[in-house]
Design brief:
By secondary structure, the protein is mainly beta. Helices cover 0% and strands 49% of the residues. Strands 2, 4, 5, 6, 9, 10 and 11 form a 7-stranded mixed beta sheet that branches. Strands 1-3-8-7 form a 4-stranded antiparallel beta sheet, with no helix packed on it.
């Protein structure tokens, strides 16, 4: 079993910054793949950033150059540092974990666990 708990969401102005954190615990191999997804009511959940066991991080085109995904050295905390936030970044952000042993992916079939989410609201 894996447990994920997000924090750090909030309300910011257009152009502001926020850093989300995800405290992760549980079976290590089920956290080889870690990612951030976001969802707006009425729309599908979309991948934002992910890291896997191979290769570098993966970012959605809409956040490249603005968001950075990272992990603490003990792999128990996942971060999403968000800069130059835009109103279209407003969403519920979810941390996710999976047992996928290769590189980063947004394939939701490879993620077995999601957190409860943290709301990010960007106002213009």
């Amino acid at each position: 079993q894996v447990q994920l708990m997000e924090s750090g969401g909030g309300s910011v102005q257009d152009g502001g910054s926020l850093t989300l954190s995800c405290a992760a615990s549980g079976i290590t191999y089920m956290r080889y793949l870690m990612g951030w997804f976001r969802q707006v009511p009425g729309q599908a959940r979309e991948g934002v950033a992910a890291i896997g066991r191979e290769g570098g991080p993966l970012y959605a085109d809409s956040v490249k150059g603005r968001f950075t995904i990272s992990q603490a050295s003990d792999k128990n905390t996942l971060f999403l540092h968000m800069t130059n936030l835009k109103p279209e970044d407003t969403a519920m952000y979810f941390c996710a974990a999976g047992a996928w042993v290769r590189g980063a992916t947004f394939d939701r079939d490879q993620y077995q666990t999601y957190g409860q989410g943290t709301q990010v609201t960007v106002s213009s």
